Amino acid sequence: MTAPIADLATYIDHTLLKPEATRADVERLIAEGAELGTYSVCISPSFLPVQLPEGLKLAVVCGFPSGKHHAEVKAAEAALSVAQGADEIDMVIDVGAAVEGRYDIVESEIRAVRAAAPAPTVLKVIIESAALSDEAIIAVCEAAVNAGADFVKTSTGFHPAGGASAHAVELMKRTVGDRAEVKASGGVRTRAAAEEMIAAGATRLGLSSSRDILADRTAAGDY
């Protein structure tokens, strides 16, 4: 069953994370997010501060896109973003630590960011699910919940292994249950794919081609 456009829009973090993005691009993103009725816009921290219309939330990435930053650096970046107006932080874990099974490292860095960006700031943890085994996905999701994350998120959209999949979303949701929510991002290029992610358990979608997807047009590319 297809959800009304207004309902689907409320799931969306309207996203611009391209390294060549300009301030004018961000201003257009914000205007479009407000026009479409998306839940938030998601941008890089170097664009802060920004002015948002009432009702539109601001998500900002942290440790993006590689996650290969010291935990202290991620924490400082998150704290500065919150001080400059971020409502939500989307942090990237050290994916290599997860691949190696060093889940204590992953949990420790999430705790550091959570401490730097306490509630009511929403913390989403990007796990790069396409690069992980099912066992690692489960373990990292447990680490995120233990560290106080509000969401686990599939992907940056920049990893060569790929983006979101319904299988990963289902596994992530089954793991976190009611303790956290799931955000699907990376490679979601059609309305059908967006609705598939919601059916699998996602309550938030990271999309850069929101207008095309809401209009049921295939997006040429999505972050």
From TrEMBL:
Gene Ontology CC terms: cytoplasm
One of the record's GO molecular function terms: deoxyribose-phosphate aldolase activity
UniProt catalytic activity: 2-deoxy-D-ribose 5-phosphate = D-glyceraldehyde 3-phosphate + acetaldehyde
Listed InterPro entries: Aldolase_TIM (IPR013785), DeoC (IPR011343), DeoC/FbaB/LacD_aldolase (IPR002915), DeoC_typeI (IPR028581)
Localization, UniProt: Cytoplasm
Active site: D90 (proton donor/acceptor), K153 (schiff-base intermediate with acetaldehyde), K183 (proton donor/acceptor)
Alphabetized UniProt keyword annotations: Cytoplasm, Lyase, Schiff base
Biological pathway: Carbohydrate degradation; 2-deoxy-D-ribose 1-phosphate degradation; D-glyceraldehyde 3-phosphate and acetaldehyde from 2-deoxy-alpha-D-ribose 1-phosphate: step 2/2
Enzyme class: lyase
GO annotation (BP), single: 2-deoxyribose 1-phosphate catabolic process
EC number: 4.1.2.4
PANTHER family found in the cross-reference section: DEOXYRIBOSE-PHOSPHATE ALDOLASE (PTHR10889)
Role of this protein: Catalyzes a reversible aldol reaction between acetaldehyde and D-glyceraldehyde 3-phosphate to generate 2-deoxy-D-ribose 5-phosphate.
NCBIfam families hit by this protein: deoC (TIGR00126)
Protein family (similarity comment): Belongs to the DeoC/FbaB aldolase family. DeoC type 1 subfamily.
UniProt-listed HAMAP family: DeoC_type1 (MF_00114)
Protein name, per record: Deoxyribose-phosphate aldolase
Lineage of origin: Bacteria, Bacillati, Actinomycetota, Actinomycetes, Micrococcales
